[in-house]
Structures are given as C-alpha cells and as structure tokens.
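Long-time lurker, first post. I've been practising inverse folding by hand and with some scripts of my own, and I keep getting stuck on stretches where the structure tokens seem ambiguous. Below is the full token string for one chain I'm working on. Before anyone asks, I'm not after the true native sequence, just a reasonable design that respects the backbone. If someone could post their per-position residues I'd love to compare against what I wrote down in my notebook.
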C-alpha cells in the first residue's frame, strides 16, 4: 500500500529564493508545453503533440537555457510534462463522457505550487533518522534543506514533492509499505448517516456535531475579502491582503481535515464493519437549472437558486468527500471493512423488521421520523443510519467470497 507523509521545511533565505525560482521555471516549462500543444492543434494540419515528443525536446531546452532550465532535475521536468499530459487526458475524458470539459489553462507563478521528483535519489535525496530534529532533504539546485520530521517514515520512499502554501514550504513523500497488522477485532458493526444539522449520526443513536468551520470563519473571511477588493492591483497592500485571505482559507481547510481524521479514527478503532451512504456529492451541490418563462422570452421563473446556494455552501463546509476518503484509507490500514450503499429512502423507511414501510410522509420534519404504518418514532438520522447498516450487511453477505 502507498502512504503519504507531509513535513514542514525550514529553508534559509537563499534556499527559499531557490525554491521559488524552481517553481517559476517549472511553471514556465508547463506553460510553454501547453502553448506548443495549442499552436499545433490550431495549425491547418491539426497536429497533436504528445508527452513523448515534448519529453524528447527537454535536452535541447536545457542546453538552450542552462540558467533557468538546465539547473533543475531532468526527471522533475519530465514529471511537469506528465502533469500537463494528465490534464489533457482528463479533458478528453470529460468531453467523451459529456461533462463540462475544462480545457487546460496557463498557470500563473502564484498558482503553480508543486514540483514532483518521481524517484528518491534522482534530483532529490531524503536523508532522515526517525524523530531526528536535524532531518534534511536535498534538492538539485537548492541544497540540503532542514525538515521538521514529526513522525517516522515507514517503507520505501517512491516520490518526493515540494509544495508551497503561502509563505511555508512542505516536502511530501509517498512510501510503499507492506500491509500493516490489522487492529484487534471488536465484533461491532455500525451504519452512519452524514448530514448538515449533525455531521454524522450512527446506528447506535450517537451523534457527531457539525463543527461548521467555514461558517465560523465567514465574518473574518468577508472582512478580509472586502479589504482585498479595495486594494489597487499590483500593489504591496494587495499582496498582503491576498496572503491574509489565503491564510484564512488554509486555516479552515486544516480544521476540516483535523476533524475528519479524528472522526474517522474513532470509527475505525471502535467498529469492524462500517456502512455509509454512497453520496454523489458533486450532483448534490449543483446549482439548479434556470427555468425560462414560456410566456415571456428572456424572463426566468423562480427556481430556488438562493436557497439551494445556502444548502450547497453547507454541504461543502461539512466536507463529506474528504471525510469518506480518509475513512476508507484508515479502514484499509486497520483491516476494517467499509461498504457504500444506495442512499435512496434510507431516512423514509421504517427500521423495524416487521414493518419496513416506506413513504415520504414518514419524515414529517428534518429531525423527526414517524412511521405512518406502525407508529414507530425516532430521530430521522438514526433511522437512516440503521437502514444504511442493514443494507450494508446485506450487500456484504451477497459479495462473493
């Protein structure tokens, strides 16, 4: 299995400048390769340029510009060209499937924040001892940079990446590990229902409150963005205002990640089997389609866009997708089983085995469940979690051994 590690780097002033130049030059290479593909397609012959052709040109590019391109790792430049190739592959895949295509765009220097080294020892070298405060990582053209290694790295290192977040620099490692020993069995199974009022409700009747990190930071973000809008472009005040807004967004993202990690870890430690809803989060957070007025061309009928915008904001603030990704990763490491089930009617079906009545009227309010057939009452989210667990156990039994 592959596991990622992220550590804070402590570069000197000169090293930070060199790292910034490395990002700038890789960004220039990315944009140049993108421009070549655009020009080739606009040519009357509509020639397509592939990664292999652009990679073969790297030797000449490095010889032509040794000060900017020749000083960096050849393999890291190949990784940047592969990054562009993956962007085009994703573009054509979306075109084929009928989704919004999203043609690859040119990157500004401030929007290109990662350089990958495909192999440890090729342009970079990770040199560490577990919990050694003097851990360093070496990059070609930069030198040995101090790293705050807060936990040991297990397994064989496969890739090393440099990432810039604001004024901070991070090194991201991926390591190949053997399958770890599973956690001791608990004999417990659980179903979970994700929501807005409560972040999570389980089939045992317990709830995890929704921290609403984005909503709590909304006032500060609004003030910072208003201050940013009043700044003149390309000024020092605007640069500082942009950094402040980005810092607030990073804080919310870290808080959301921390909450997701802790909640997923508690579930994995306590239960052998976890069932959750297979949510289509991207579809759930889409804006409603406009409704043209058939009697008045150019006029649109109310479509509830304002209310849906508030719901979409709450869904994104909850971070369900991040949580489910982390839950699956932790369950795999711990030897636990996680199954996703169809979410339809999970909170409208009576959980009692002898009833099982399904109707929209069974959920008169957001929180209350009242079965119209047998009179069973409970919290609607708990009912949803019970039905999710039941569907998950059925699906597990149906899976081939």
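-- Answer (accepted) --
I ran through it position by position. Result:
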């Amino acid at each position: 299995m592959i596991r990622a590690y992220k550590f804070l780097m402590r570069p000197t002033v000169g090293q930070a400048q060199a790292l910034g130049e490395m990002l700038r030059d890789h960004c220039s290479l990315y944009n140049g390769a993108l421009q070549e593909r655009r020009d080739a397609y606009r040519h009357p012959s509509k020639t397509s340029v592939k990664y292999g052709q652009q990679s073969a040109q790297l030797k000449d590019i490095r010889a032509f510009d040794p000060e900017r391109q020749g000083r960096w790792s050849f393999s890291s430049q190949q990784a940047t060209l592969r990054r562009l190739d993956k962007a085009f592959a994703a573009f054509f895949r979306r075109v084929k499937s009928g989704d919004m295509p999203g043609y690859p765009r040119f990157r500004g220097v401030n929007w290109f924040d990662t350089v990958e080294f495909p192999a440890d020892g090729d342009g970079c070298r990770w040199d560490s001892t577990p919990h050694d405060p003097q851990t360093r990582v070496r990059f070609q053209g930069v030198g040995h940079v101090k790293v705050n290694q807060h936990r040991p790295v297990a397994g064989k290192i496969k890739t090393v990446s440099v990432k810039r977040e604001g004024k901070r620099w991070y090194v991201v490692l991926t390591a190949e590990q053997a399958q770890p020993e599973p956690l001791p069995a608990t004999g417990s199974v659980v179903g979970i229902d994700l929501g807005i009022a409560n972040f999570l409700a389980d089939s045992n009747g317990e709830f995890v409150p929704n921290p609403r990190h984005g909503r709590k930071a909304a006032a500060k973000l609004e003030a910072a963005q208003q201050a940013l809008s009043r700044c003149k472009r390309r000024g020092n005040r605007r640069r500082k205002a942009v950094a402040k807004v980005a810092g607030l967004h990073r804080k919310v993202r870290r808080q959301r990640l921390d909450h997701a990690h802790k909640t997923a870890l508690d579930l994995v430690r306590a239960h052998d089997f976890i069932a959750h809803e297979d949510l289509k989060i991207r579809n759930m957070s889409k804006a409603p389609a406009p409704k043209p007025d058939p009697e008045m061309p150019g006029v649109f009928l109310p479509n509830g866009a304002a209310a849906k915008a508030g719901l979409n904001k709450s869904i994104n603030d909850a971070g369900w997708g991040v949580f489910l990704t982390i839950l699956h990763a932790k369950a795999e490491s711990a030897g636990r089983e996680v199954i996703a089930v169809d979410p339809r009617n999970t909170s409208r079906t009576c959980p009692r085995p002898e009833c099982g009545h399904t109707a929209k009227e069974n959920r008169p309010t957001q929180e209350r469940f009242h079965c119209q057939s047998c009179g069973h009452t409970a919290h609607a989210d708990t009912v949803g979690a019970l039905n999710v667990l039941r569907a998950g156990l059925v699906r597990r039994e149906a899976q081939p051994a």
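A couple of notes from the structure itself: Residues 189-398 form one domain. DSSP finds eleven helices and 16 strands in the chain. Happy to go over any region you disagree with.
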